[in-house]
Each structure stands twice: as C-alpha cells, then as structure tokens.
Design goal:
Layout: H1 4-27, H2 37-49, E1 51-52, H3 54-59, H4 66-78, E2 82-86, E3 94-98, H5 100-122, H6 128-156
Helix pairs in contact: 1-5, 2-5
C-alpha cells in the first residue's frame, strides 16, 4: 500500500510532467518554444524593470555563472529582443533593455504563463485560506530546496 509521502511524491512528479507538457503545447507555435526557462525568466525580469545592468540581472540568477548570463543576453540580443546601451548619466554603465519586439515577446510569454499556470491555481481562487496555505507550503519547500542546492553546490566547489 502506498504511503502518503509516496503518493505525494508521485503526485508532484505527475504535476511536473503535466506542467512541462502544458508549457510545450502553449509555446509550440511561438518563438518562445526554443528558449529555456532561464532565458524566459531573463526576458521577464528585464520587462518588469524596464532596463537593467548585467550585474542587476545576475542578482536574479545567483547560482548561474556570469558567462552563462552574458550568453543568454547575447542570444536575446541576436534575436532582436533586447539592446545594450550606455546609461545617459554614467557612460561607464551598460544597460540592457527590451526592444519593441522584445516587449511584444515578453507580453506573449506572460500570456503563455497565465495559460500554463491558470489551471494550477484555478481551484485555489475560491478560498484565500487555501491560497495562503499553499503559498506557505511552497515557501517552505523552496527553502528546503535552496538549502539542498547550497549543500550540493558547496560540495562541487571543494
């Protein structure tokens, strides 16, 4: 007989697979289809902040090498979605911002996220208590995952 923990682990696995499939289906005909999660998050962060320095961007990806972030910026720049320019007030500062096309792509990404995650939260909208309870669980799980990642990444650097 399956224990509660085994059933939960199985449910999380299936949830993860279904969410991945939903993302694939929603983005299948989109230019977003060939981007990874980090690149999509990068696009989203730049859209939220209007313009950012590469070091500001790096803060959102503390476990990612700066060279990887630079490569992601270059990829999005080559697609014509972002531009790099010098800050007006301090010409030593480089800024990254979305182009008009980048703004459209970021909006499309937001729409795809809503379509993907909408079914996940649909039932929760009925009760603020459920939302808060799930938020609490998600926060605790994220904390545990952060600790596990830090522990494993610390082993790699020895």
């Amino acid at each position: 007989m399956e224990t509660d923990i085994e059933a939960l682990m199985s449910g999380i696995r299936f949830l993860s697979l279904k969410m991945k499939r939903l993302r694939e289906l929603h983005r299948a005909e989109s230019e977003l289809a060939n981007l990874g999660t980090r690149q999509l998050e990068l696009l989203e962060q730049i859209a939220k902040n209007r313009e950012m320095t590469p070091s500001d961007i790096q803060k959102y990806f503390p476990r990612t090498a700066p060279s990887t972030i630079s490569a992601d910026i270059a990829l999005l720049e080559n697609k014509g979605w972002i531009v790099r320019r010098l800050a007006v007030k301090d010409k030593r500062v480089h800024l990254v911002a979305l182009t008009e096309t980048g703004l459209e792509i970021a909006a499309e990404n937001a729409t795809h996220q809503e379509m993907t995650y909408g079914p996940l939260v649909k039932g929760l909208r009925r009760s603020k208590e459920h939302v808060r309870a799930v938020m609490d669980v998600v926060a605790r799980v994220n904390d545990e995952l952060d600790q596990e990642l830090a522990s494993l990444e610390g082993q790699d650097s020895d």
